[in-house]
Amino acid sequence: MEDKIANNIDFVRRHLVDTVYKLAVLEGIATTYANTEAILGGGKINNMMASDVQKILNLKNAWEYILSEDIILSKLDLDIISNVNRHIESGFYYNAGKVRSIPVSISGTTYAPPLPIASVIREELAEILGKDASCEDITILLMLYLMKRQIFIDGNKRTAVISANHLFISRGLGLIAIPSEKTEEYKTLLIEYYEGKDPKTIIKFIKDKCIIRLDNK
Questions:
Q1: CA-CA to 56 of 20 to 30 Å: which in 18, 22, 30, 112?
Q2: Phi, psi torsion values for 175, nearest 5 degrees
Q3: CATH code reported for the domain at 3-216
Q4: For residues 16 and 52, is the Cβ–Cβ distance under 8 A?
Q5: Which of 85, 39, 46, 45 has its CA nearest to residue 62?
């Protein structure tokens, strides 16, 4: 493994509490930074629902999955993305990690994602990953695509962020995380993106506010 990738993995592990907390806030999980830290440290939390505690532990497991050497060095594909979702939704959905076969709705928007077909998803992923663009741009496009496409029954935003970070980390580029204090602004831009607005605004937001580069740590 190249030093830059190993350093990137170490960086993510050192910031795992903060990263999991930000993802939990993005998904609306009722937690605080202190509670998240305690949960990841194996502590017992009395003021949280058991389901929220499990969601946080699932996020940790999903991160550990992509940070494992054999996975981070593998080419990102639908199988890895599906496994990320399986970890995230473990214990909540029988079909966790499987391409959904029922309609879903997204709160706050009239946008209704079409039913995904695995073969089509693989083609669309290959098109995005094969674009003649910087890895940073491809990573952001991938994350937004996974959020909008809603491949799975639930946990799509969490799956999108962690899967996109697989690509980012495997190139030693740092970390993508939506700051907790910017969550509502991000969600507003995301809904606009769902509804067909030019993605340049949300792409710029991610570049300016959501990327932690190793050289700026």
A1: 112
A2: -150, 140
A3: 1.10.3290.10
A4: no
A5: 85
